[in-house]
Design a protein that fits this description.
alpha+beta; single chain; 2 domains; 4 helices
Length: about 190
């Protein structure tokens, strides 16, 4: 290969590397043009979370400060999960009815802290699904706050695709896994 051909090849490889690194750094963003629960697989990973004070990060319920561990929160029969549409974090009408009931229970039980877990189905990269789970948990938190639940009682965490309810590779199963899950801990 001539000197000029070699330089062109290096330049081409550099451009491709820049494009790929740009896509990877934006994989958690809807603006990257990659559907969150698309056919791109991902494996492994840590949860990302945020407490009421607004910190966020990876590796557990970051931002919860010295507060309780996510393992200390337990589900209660009165707080129902909500489900989300594919690649969405908006609260639909059915989910709003469930959240209204959850808000009533939380206001009647002010001595409980709340952890909202955001989940996604397996379709999508782990990073993207963590970000999507985070958006779902935040949307649920914002709805509850708007309906009278004190923000200081709420923490969120995203597990992305890491804790599925159903492990089959079907639409019904994926629908079950696209959810926000609620756990409480007595203060």
């Amino acid at each position: 290969m001539s000197g000029r051909g070699w330089q062109a090849m290096v330049a081409l490889v550099a451009v491709v590397a820049l494009i790929l690194s740009g896509c990877a750094s934006q994989s958690g963003s809807a603006s990257a043009g990659v559907s969150s629960e698309s056919a791109y697989g991902g494996s492994g990973g840590a949860a990302m979370g945020m407490g009421p004070e607004g910190g966020s990060g990876r590796g557990g319920a970051q931002g919860m400060g010295r507060g309780p561990s996510p393992r200390e929160f337990v589900p209660v029969v009165d707080l129902k999960d909500i489900n989300f549409a594919f690649d969405r974090a908006e609260i639909g009408s059915e989910a709003a009815m469930v959240l209204d009931t959850n808000a009533q229970w939380l206001k009647a039980n002010p001595n409980h802290l709340l952890l909202i877990e955001g989940h996604a189905d397996e379709r999508g990269t782990n990073e993207y699904n963590l970000a999507l789970g985070d958006r779902r948990a935040k949307a649920s938190m914002n709805y509850l706050i708007a309906h009278g639940v004190r923000a200081s009682r709420i923490s969120i965490i995203s597990y992305g695709e890491e804790h599925p309810l159903c492990r089959e590779h079907t639409e019904d199963c994926w629908t079950m896994n696209r959810r926000a899950h609620f756990g409480v801990k007595a203060r």
